[in-house]
Fold this protein.
Amino acid sequence: MEYVIAIGFIAVVFGSLLLFAPNSILSLERRANRIYMTDPTFMQYRVPFGIGLFFAALYIIYSLMNESTEYFWVLGVIALIFSVMLLLTPKTIFSLERAANRVYMTDPTFMKYRVPFGIFLLVSGVFMIYASIGYF
């Protein structure tokens, strides 16, 4: 339940920023829109990374076999697939990285409709906090 309260506070903060300080959102976006390339380091040591990730994924899957936490199984399977791809087909990792490093600019849409977005975030954040505390 604490995570709903935390998400509510984040929504209230960003809703307030959209309504009262939209330039701070733009500066935050400029800092977040950096592209990070991991090619040199990651591909230089891809075999040790792949082997380590492979065994870590197997450990996650093995240690949670009798638990009722299916989402950890999903993480383990994703890590296992990624480690096999890293060991056998590293070019696939390059293509996935290129697809993930696209920058989508949301400035025109956000700034055009910043008041409705801000009000929605404020109302939904307050509702999440109010409902989680138990007054609703």
